[in-house]
Design goal:
The protein is of the alpha/beta class. It has two domains: about 35-145, Rossmann fold, CATH 3.40.50; about 150-285 and about 330-345, 3-Layer(aba) Sandwich (Rossmann fold), CATH 3.40.50. It contains ten helices and 14 strands. The protein has helices at about 1-30, 50-65, 80-90, 105-115, 150-165, 175-195, 215-230, 240-255, 290-300, 330-345, and strands at about 35-40, 70-75, 95-100, 120-125, 140-145, 165-170, 200-210, 235-240, 260-265, 275, 280, 280-290, 310-315, 320. It has a six-stranded parallel beta sheet with strand order 2-1-3-4-5-13, with helices on both faces. Helix 3 (about 80-90) runs parallel beside helix 4. The longest helix is centred in the N-terminal third of the chain and has 31 residues, at about 1-30. It is globular and about 55 Å long. The N and C termini lie far apart (about 95 Å). The relative contact order is 0.13.
Amino acid sequence: MKKILVLLVTIAIVFSLVTSCSKKDEGTAETSQAMKVGMVTDAGTIDDKSFNQGTWEGIQAAAEDMNIDIKYLKPTGTTEADYLKEIGNLYDAGYKFIVTPGFKFETAIYQAQSKYTDAKFVLLDGVPHPGDYNTDVGSNTVSIFFAEHESGFMAGVATALELNEGETAFIGGMEIPPVQKFNWGFQQGVTYANKNLGTSITINPDNVVYQGSFDNVAAGQQLAAQMFDKGVDAIFCAAGGVGVGAINEAKARAKSGENVWIVGVDVDQYAEGIYEGKKSIILTSAMKRIDQAAYDMIKAELEGNFPGGQILTLDATNNGVGIPEENPNLSAGTQAKTEEVFSDLQAGTISVSAEQGSLIK
């Protein structure tokens, strides 16, 4: 009986060990099977408070909710060859779902989608082409655009309502369609508020400037200083690092007691505008839900619904653009009125044009 008991105990221990090892192996297998999601940054850093950061935050949010492994690479330059090199590095490391932010990736993704046919590509604010702008979205690629004019419009309405009277300005980076649409939409928003909501806001044409880059912080600060010196109350910046310079200038002036504002772009830039530990010079931000776009494409791939070969546009109707849900520097009345306007925009009662010089309908 003792021998039988010892044998049974031994069998139980062995079975327990086998079961334990089996469960451990299953856990390892699940980790190894995680989808690997990579990102290649555009000009600027991963914490640029703009497009790179917004895209990466969406990928990070996906990593918290889904079984994915994430990684980003920063190219040494911004040429097609620089981007292709990092795309190749991600692919070779097993990262076969690659997200790229910005139009500068257009020709690189055109090359990559054919070279790496078993990979998936998400191109934000751009469409693949071989250099001649004849678009070619591969079956393993999705291009996502945003209605920046609608986002700029909402920021213009909110700015006009909060200031009620005064002067605004615009600083853009490169004079490209997404940046232009922000500008045109903002001006339409101010015009709409002046005509329909009792405000009196002006935009002097001399105070609408495209700096020509997205990374010249010093130039952005200088431009903002010139505009504030001329009496501008709020500057809408759609300019990446150039906008950071404008934010720095506004914070310096606010510390000295001046009442000046910046309207942020792409993401909620409120935190970037904080000075003296509690106040912020960010009045509101014209947002593109780039984080949500990246998140949704990863989720679609995991669910087997990746929209390869398509060009998608995110706008007010699908909550792809707008201003932040929380705007600490906007009064309750301003926020309530902007919500009403946004509802009209979603319903089609208000139509914002993506073309310069067009009037709001």
